[in-house]
Amino acid sequence: MDLIHEKRVELKEQRASSQQDLTTCLIKIRNEDGSAVLSGEEIVDNCILVMLAGHDTSSILLTFLVKHLAEDPSVHAAVVNEEIAKSKAYGELLTWDDLAKMKYTWRVAMETLRVAPPIFCNFRTIVKDFEYGGYLIPKEWQIIWAACMTHMDETIFPDPSKFDPTRFEQQNPAPPYSLVAFGGGPRMCPGN
Ligand code: HEM
Hints:
Strand content: 5-15%
Bound molecules: protoporphyrin IX containing FE
Strand order of the largest sheet: 1-4
Number of helices: 8
Low-confidence stretches: none
Shape: flat
């Protein structure tokens, strides 16, 4: 709250720009009459959401990725032998362009998201009655969609327990809404 107060003062005195960072963007969202859309508490909540949603998920993915590299020497070797790994000096940082060239490593990350989705399930509220598999799912029920179960469906991913990054060599390795580590629909992860 102190930080938000400071930023409000800086914005007022034109020492900060509205596009400077997440906090100033949120402070500057205005109603038509010029009043603030978000209260200080709502801004804090949104900042915490983005930090938690972005931090824990990414670190869980990296943890499982390292686990799979440790368990599978052939996958480990292929990651280490990526062209980009060889062209970098020890400690040299990767750029955004470098990431696009790390095709095999990317597939390992995708396969890790499939076998161990960091958010393995989430909630939805039913907005209208519908039938699925012979069951009526009534409006207003709260349901759980479980990424980990869809990702282990052998009709979608053959031999689902096998850790196989080559699945992602295909452009569309799964039908829509079946690779759901980042969710789906209008509330899909913006960090995707
Ligand atoms: C490997 C990394 C990540 C995974 C697996 C992941 C996964 C997810 C999932 C499953 C959801 C729920 C989607 C739904 O209900 O349809 C979600 C929501 C969200 N994620 Fe991520 N996420 C990741 C990284 C990030 C990052 C880096 C950020 C931001 C910097 C972020 C910000 C958010 C936010 C703000 C929401 C809520 C969206 C909303 O409710 O409209 N996530 N994420």
